[in-house]
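forwarding from the other thread:

> can someone predict this with fe (ii) ion?

sure thing
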Amino acid sequence: MTGAPSMKAEITAFFDPATFTITYVIAEPEGVDERHCAVLDSVLDFDYSSGRTATSSADKVIEFIKNSNLVLDWILESHPHADHVTAAPHIQAALGGKTAIGENVTRVQENFRAVYNLGGDFETDGSQFDHLFADNEEFQIGKMMAKAIYTPGHTPSCVCYQVGDAVFVGDTMFMPDFGSARCDFPDGDARQLFHSIQRILSLPPETRLFMCHDYAPGGREYAWETTVGEQRETSIHLNDNVSEEDFVKMRTERDAQLSMPGLILPSIQLNIRAGHFPEPDDNGISYLKLPLNAV
Ligand SMILES: [Fe+2]
């Protein structure tokens, strides 16, 4: 990478216990005048039973950025999430910054335009986001260089973000004792995920990996940081001793037993719109659709 690759990002994690999601603020290190930052995978609180949204999780992130005197450059998504709604519009309204996601979000938009029967009013060109990343595209957080790395498999649009010695892995892999992401959503592909994960695991062993989710298996403490070396040695799904065929077989069999995430129908519907609510009806209320027997 060009620019200042030796800069070590200051990384602050915000864990959301309702959706097991980790939101990150990725900031230029101390000592830089007017430090800039990015937010990755924010969470809008969503109560399905009442249809109410709230911003207390996102407001903690906003408060942190304000209190740290950071300038927000980017509001990043690793992919359109199926388990939580992004708070990107709320954060952008408060702090500015550009929303961005991988350019294959268009495939997810096409798939789910059909599921929700959104018709011609819903654009499937990714234009709801301010920027769409190509594979290996480099960008800057202030003066700090970052890179988008395509990692399809969980969804066709998944990207990881590399900032110096840190990679934010989205929903590719989880902590070594939990394994890897499911591949049974539309255009998911276990074989692709195997190769995507190899892309990340081919980085130097000391590369720091930051998870998007943690489920604390076995009652351990929540954790979200590991290394390439640790994954290659100890991941229960994809260590150095697991072949492509074994991984695909394991992933496919496991996915066949998983139920749908509790918030998939509202989450995807909003996340393919970059988190913006559908146009309100003439009573001023926004509505979501609930497709029956379609997913
Ligand atoms: Fe996901």
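The CA atoms of residues 112 and 259 lie 18 Å apart. thats all i got for now
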